[in-house]
Amino acid sequence: WMRMNHNLFSALKLEKTVMFIILALIVLVAAFNIASTLIMMVMGKTKDIAILKAMGAMDSSIRKIFIYKGMIIGAVGTSLGVSLGFIICKLLEKYKFIQLPGDVYYISTLPVRLEALDVLMIASAAMVICFLSTLYPASQASKLNPIEAIRYG
User: Fold this and answer.
1) Cα–Cα dist 146/10, whole Å
2) Beta bridge partners of 99
3) Angle at 20 between CA 24 and CA 14, to 5 degrees
4) 3-class DSSP state for residue 143?
5) Cβ–Cβ under 8 Å, residues 18 and 114
6) CA–CA separation, 145 vs 142, rounded Å?
7) pTM, entire model
8) What SS3 state is found at 99?
9) Res 56: pLDDT
10) Integer angstrom CA distances of residue 102 from 60, 71, 106
11) pLDDT per residue as tens digits for the range 43-99
12) Fewer CB within 10 Å, N side or C side of the chain?
């Protein structure tokens, strides 16, 4: 049976790979949103950052503040996305509300199989991308000149 339907299984494997790429691109767009939010936060908190640096805060501690902030945003978004995805998959598995045309496919409903490794890979990729998106705003915040920021902020 598997040899007879080898093309179908190859197509499903390709579809799984393409879906991972699409999800990674969606997470990449979200990462740009996180980066832009953090950049706007750095711009809004310029005076506060300058005061912290004038009081003796090191560049690394300023960087850590913004990395933690971005990672919290990423963790909340990732956990909400995984939870919502899990709920939708369970509903799809139970109620089978997505029908497939019988003349095209060998099955009548969309099959759902949730694999822990896939979920872990997607969540891990999301967190790595979120971490990478925090690096630029955090480094910009740590490079802030406190004198200039207090004078013009």
Assistant:
1) 59
2) 109
3) 145
4) coil
5) no
6) 9
7) 0.79
8) strand
9) 92
10) 60, 45, 6
11) 999 999 999 999 999 999 999 999 999 999 999 999 999 999 999 999 998 898 788
12) N
